[in-house]
Amino acid sequence: MADLKPVRTYLGMPLYRPKTAFFELSSCEGCQLQLLNNEASLLDFLSLLDIVNFREAMTEKSDEFEIAFIEGSVTRSDEVERLKEIRKTANTLVAFGSCACFGGVNQMKNRLGSEWVKKEVYGDHPVESGFARPLEDIVTVDLKIFGCPIKKKEVEKIIINIALGKAVVHPVYPVCMECKANENICLFDLGEPCLGPITRGGCDSWCPNSRFGCWGCRGPADDANIDQLREIMKKHGFSEETLRDRLECFGGFSKYTEAFRKNPEKKKEGK
Amino acid sequence: MKITTNINIHHLARVEGHGNIRIKIQDGRLQEAKWEIVETPRFFEALLVGKKWENAPWICGRICGICSIGHTLASIRAIENAFGIVPTNQTRKLRLLLKHMETLQSHILHLYFLSAPDFLGTGSVFPLMESQPDVVRRAVRIKQLANDICDCIGGRRIHPTRTIVGGFTMLPEKKELEAFRSRLKEITGDLLITAELFQTFHIPDFTRETEFVSLKGDSEYPFIGGDLISTDGVTKKEQEYRQMTNEYCVDQSTSKWARLSRKSFAVGALARLNNNFSFLHPAAREIADRFSLKPVNHNPFMNNIAQLVESVHVVNESLALVDEILDSAWEEPKQTVTPQSGVGVGAVEVPRGILYHCYEFNDTGHILKCDCVIPTSQNHANIQFDLEELAAHYAKTGKQDREIELLAQMLVRAYDPCISCSVH
C-alpha cells in the first residue's frame, strides 16, 4: 500500500493540490464509492487532491472549491438550483459517471412519461419528479467522465492531468478495439449480444472481459456505425428489441433511440 | 439546566443519500423530532415495466452503489423463482461467497469510515490517516480483500458483470481462490483487533423496544432466500413478503415506510442476529459475548457491534466455502433460461437488512409489474420513533444541545442507512 505523503511531486516540484468537492444528484452514489473502493490506491489518490466536500465520507464542508465532481442526473427543481449554485463556484465542473453525462439508467423512465411513473410507484401520494436530464442540459460541463460505474484508474489519470494542467483526451475508438487487444473471445461468437463495436473505449473492455456483452454505458464512440451493428446483431439472431434495450439503458445513445420511441415530454420541452 | 434548542441538520454526512434531522426542544421538553428523507426518487419499479427479464438484474443492481451485488442477487433470485430455475450447488456456493464479501466490505466501510469517526471525535476517517495510520491501513486491508474476492467472483465490486440468471458468465480460477484462503485467515486477526478497538468505544446506553424482521435460519445463519421471521413471533413464506412489509407513504419522506405488529420494525445486522443468534459461527459468538450482545437486544447503537460480529461470521464461513469450492470439480457455470409467465420473489439479506425484489412476467418474459422493498425503507419509521425517544430522553436528563445533536446523528448512522436505495 502507498505511503502517506501529504504532497506529491512531479519532476522534483511539489504538485498543486486543487480544492475539490464531490456532490451527488439523483444517483446510486456508486461512482463516489468507487473512489473509496479501490483500496490499493486510495491513500495515494487522496494525496492528489485537497478534498473539501465529500458528504458520503466526511462531516466538514466548505463552499470554496475549484473542481466540482457531480454524480447523478437532474430530476427535480431543487437539483437544478443546486447545480447552478455549484457552477457559480467551480472553475472546473466535472460530470462524473453516466447519470451525470447522459441521464444514466434514470432516463429510462423518460420513455414512459412522469405522470404514469409517479402513479405506478406512489399511487395518489404527491411526489415531485420530472424528466431525468444530464448536467449539460442545465449548466456548462467542462469535463465528462464516462461509465456506470466510473473506472477509478481512468479517474486517477484524469485528475493527474488536471493537476498538471494537461488536456484530458478520451479515446475515440470503440470498446471492441480494447476487447480485441485483450484477446477475449468475441461475445457474438459466444452467442451474446454486445454494443462493444459502437461504444466509446477507455474502460479496457471491462464487461466483455467477464464474458458479459457491452451495454453502452460510456455512450457512442466517434463515428459509431449503428446500422452496421444492427446488421451484425441481425446476423447473429438478436431482435431489434435486444438492440433497443441496450441502446436505451444509459442514455448515451439517445439521439439514436429517438428513432425507436418518440418521447412526448421531450418533445414538449423542445429538446 | 433545562435546555431549549433547535437542531437542524441538512443532508446528514457519512450516510449514503440525503436525509435531514430536525429536533426542537423547549425548556427540556421535546417539541418535535423528525427524520426527513428528501432524496429524489428514480422510479426503478416503473422504468422496468415492459422490459425483458434480462434487463432486471443489470438495471436493478444500480439501485444502490454500496449493495449492488445484493440487489443483483435478489433480482436474479426473483426471476429464477418465477421461471422455476433451481440454482446448482456450485452457483449457490459462489453466490453466497460473493454475498459474504459484499457484507464484509459494506460492514467495514460503515464501521471504520462512517461510524468510527464519531467515537474517535473526528469529522471523517481522513484525519486518522495521519494520527492513527494503523487503524486506516487495517480497514483498507480488510475492505480490499473483500472487494478483491467480489471482483474475482462477480467480475467487479460495483455493478457486477458475471452474475446472471441461471448462474455465472464465467468462473474464477481455482488458484485465485486458493490465494484468497491465506488472506482470509490473516483477516481474522485484523477483525480481532477491530473488536478490541470497538471495545474502547463508549456505545450509548439507549433502548427502545421494537420488532426485528429477517430471514429465518433453518440450519445456518441465513443470507439468500427462505422463510421470514419477526421477534414478535410472525413467520411468513418468502412469497408472502408484502404481509411482512406493509409499505405506505408518508409526507416527511420520499421513501415509503413499513410496519408489522407495531408502529415500526427494524431490519439489519442486529435484526438478523436477534432472530438467528444460535447459527452464528463460534468465533462470531465469542465476539458477541465480549460485548454482552445476545438476543433480543433493543439498543439500536448495538447494530454497529452486530455488524462486527457478522463480519467475523462471514469471514469464517467464507473460509469453509472456499475449501468446499476448491474440493469439487467445476461444473457448467450457467443453466439455460426459459421464460414463463408468473410472479417470482427474491429475498436476500443485504448488509442493511432484508431486501425483496418481486416481478410479474408475461409468457414472453416481459415485466408487467416490479416491486422492490429496501431494508432502509423498512427502517425509516423505526429511526423516526427512536429519534423521538432519544431526543426526549436526553433533553430530560439535561444533556447539552451539542451532545444531543451528536447522539441523534450517531443513532441514524447506527442503522447504516442507504437512503438513495430506500427511495430508488
Give the strand line-up of the largest sheet of chain A. Answer: 4-3-5-6-7
Average per-residue pLDDT of chain B, rounded, comes to 96
Label the overall shape of chain B.
globular
CATH-assigned homologous superfamily of the largest domain in chain A:
NADH:ubiquinone oxidoreductase-like, 20kDa subunit
Q: Give the oligomer, counting copies of the same chain as homo and different chains as hetero.
A: heterodimer
What is the structural class of chain B? alpha+beta
In spatial order, strands of the major sheet of chain B run 8-7-6-9
**What portion of residues of chain B is helical?**
40-55%
Distance between the termini of chain A: 48 Å
Alpha-carbon distance between the termini of chain B? 44 Å
- SS class of chain A: alpha/beta
H/E element order of chain A: EEEHHEEHEHHEHHHHHH
Order of helices and strands of chain B: EEEHHHHHHEEHEEEHEHHHEEEHHH
Q: Output the radius of gyration of chain A.
A: 20 Å
Strand element count of chain A:
7
Give structural notes.
The complex is a heterodimer of chains A (271) and B (424). Chain A has 271 residues and is an alpha/beta fold. Chain A has eleven helices and seven strands. Chain A has a five-stranded parallel beta sheet with strand order 4-3-5-6-7. A two-stranded antiparallel sheet of chain A has the order 1-2. In chain A, a hairpin with a 2-residue loop joins strand 1 and strand 2. The N terminus and C terminus of chain A are likely disordered. The radius of gyration of chain B is 21 Å and the shape is globular. With 424 residues, chain B is α+β, with helices and mostly antiparallel strands. The chains are: A alpha/beta (271), B alpha+beta (424). Chains A and B meet through helix 1, helix 2, helix 5 and helix 9 of A and helix 1, helix 2, helix 4 and helix 6 of B.
Topology, pairings included?
The complex is a heterodimer of chains A (271) and B (424).
Chain A lengths: L8 E2 L2 E2 L4 E6 L5 H8 L1 H8 L3 E5 L12 E5 L5 H13 L2 E5 L1 H5 L11 H9 L20 E3 L6 H13 L10 H7 L44 H10 L4 H10 L4 H4 L6 H5 L3
Parallel strand pairs in A: 3-4, 3-5, 5-6, 6-7
Antiparallel strand pairs in A: 1-2
Chain B lengths: L4 E5 L9 E8 L2 E9 L6 H4 L7 H6 L7 H16 L5 H32 L7 H4 L1 H22 L8 E2 L2 E2 L5 H26 L11 E5 L12 E3 L4 E2 L4 H5 L19 E2 L2 H8 L5 H9 L12 H25 L14 E9 L2 E9 L5 E7 L1 H22 L4 H14 L4 H5 L1
Helix pairs in contact in B: 4-6, 4-11, 6-7, 7-11, 9-11, 10-11, 12-13
